[in-house]
């Protein structure tokens, strides 16, 4: 395939993803009972980044973490591998996107919670052996939030860096 066709195909895929994200965006994940806990978890992510606490942030990840390294999608299988590649995974654009977002920018759907264009996805996960009914008392408060995906390969990132 020639380069112009590949570029056009990639741009059309990006447009499709953006359209889906716009239509899926529900603003503060309305309808999800675990939204307040998602916002708290997001604040913890932001604080870990502000403090450059890489170990704390790596501890918030569920492994394997889905991300990209050097332009290839990959699964990061351990905290040690994440820490070795921290600056590639949590690059300046991802950090900026996480740090600039406000509570009302967090949105969720059946795949979890995210921000902006889906730079980072996180979800409230139950242990694999827990088959609780989502209608049971306490269901929405017994899981543990974890980072599942860092989409550092989004070609059109619009991180608005604050003016100096």
Write a concise keyword list for the protein shown above.
6 helices; alpha+beta; 6 strands; six-stranded mixed sheet
Protein architecture, described:
The chain has 164 residues and is an alpha+beta fold. The protein has helices spanning 3-24, 35-50, 54-58, 79-84, 86-89, 92-100; strands at 61-69, 72-76, 106-109, 112-115, 120-125, 144-150. It is built from six helices and six strands; from the N terminus they run αααββαααββββ. Strand 4 (112-115) and strand 5 (120-125) form a beta hairpin. The radius of gyration is 17 Å and the shape is globular.
Beta-strand residue fraction: 15-25%
Please identify the structural class as seen in this structure.
alpha+beta
Number of separate structural domains: 1
Q: Give the tally of β-strands.
A: 6
> Helix tally?
6
Low-confidence stretches: 8-29
Helix/strand order, N-terminal first: HHHEEHHHEEEE
Major beta sheet, specifics? 6 strands, mixed
Shape: globular
Q: Spatial order of the strands in the main sheet?
A: 2-1-6-5-4-3
Mean pLDDT: 81
Q: Could you tell me how far the N terminus lies from the C terminus, measured between alpha carbons in angstroms? A: 44 Å
How much helical structure, as a percent, in the residues?
Answer: 25-40%
